[in-house]
Amino acid sequence: MSFAILFQGYTFKKKITNNLNYSNSIIKTTFEQASEHIKYNLLHHIKNHVINFVHLKYYTQAMILTNAVAIYKYWQSLKKNVPKFMAGHSIGEYAALVCSNVITLLDALTLVMLREKLMYDVNRKESGAMEMIIGLHENKIQDIINNYLFKNQVNIACINPNNCIVISGNSNKVQQVILKCKKNGALYTIKFPYNIMSHCYLMKTTASKLLNTLHSINFKRPTCRIVNNVDVKCEYLKKNICSALVRQMYKTVLWKQSIEYIINKNVSTLLQIGSNSRSRNIYTQTTKISVIPLNNINNIHKALKII
């Protein structure tokens, strides 16, 4: 049975619960290696299966990345089957690169720590915000942004399935767009709990600072095809992968299109690794495909029986 693995990105929740055994040797070792590299104890923020993002700040992306890689390593220890495709939403693309043996976890941590620092540097100069709009098509949202003449100050950051669209940019202007979207039929909106912006034009100048570090890292050919989320295509050359990672910081994440691409390649099951439970509902509403989140032991064993 052909399957793909999806790595989620940022969550709009301040806390998430994963019913996983974080004392398992594979998961614990992965977290210990990551913590030693970034000189910060990530396991300190996991208690009773709950990951607390409230006080992580500069280590949020490192936590998301490490958690995803740890789950995948645990899954691999139980099932050696290689997925037909991988894809990652925003920060999730770095997890896909690690799990497809393109870069090491430690190199990925170096990149995402820098990536997060660059985001906060921009937000110190200009207050940013990200907010999800549910129930309004991306074309309508883009028209609202254009009508406000906010093209370079507010952008569509992520196009998710089922009209779940994230916008990002200057916080005041984001709120103006949100109010207009609500008047034009948006069902509701969800504000991200981080006062940062990403995947928007205001990040373009600083995004180039990621390139020097990317050039210093060793890249290998992927062992599994990775669908990148800015071009919706599989890349194999280092220069093309690096270009996509840089552009991802200021371009729209085409997540809906990435999922459609994978499904159209005769993939029958999607295994989801990450923190956003909403995503599973989105996929099952828009497709007939089987979606299993690998966020607890029961689901992992359910997936083992299917794959």
From TrEMBL:
Q: Which SMART domains match?
A: PKS_AT (SM00827)
Tell me its EC number(s), please: 2.3.1.39
Coiled-coil residues:
none
Tell me the ranges covered by the Malonyl-CoA:ACP transacylase (MAT) domain, including all copies. 23-289
Alphabetized UniProt keyword annotations: Acyltransferase, Transferase
EC class: transferase
Q: Acyltransferase: present as a keyword of the record?
A: yes
Protein name (record): Malonyl CoA-acyl carrier protein transacylase
**Reaction catalysis annotation:** holo-[ACP] + malonyl-CoA = malonyl-[ACP] + CoA
Recall the taxonomic lineage recorded for the source organism. Bacteria, Pseudomonadati, Pseudomonadota, Gammaproteobacteria, Enterobacterales
One GO BP on record is:
fatty acid biosynthetic process
Record's keyword annotation contains Cytoplasm:
no
The scientific name of the source species is Buchnera aphidicola
What family is this?
A: Belongs to the fabD family.
Active-site residues? 90, 199
* Pfam (any one): Acyl_transf_1
Q: What would be one Gene Ontology cellular-component term for the protein?
A: cytosol
Pathway participation: Lipid metabolism; fatty acid biosynthesis
Q: Which GO terms describe its molecular function?
A: [acyl-carrier-protein] S-malonyltransferase activity
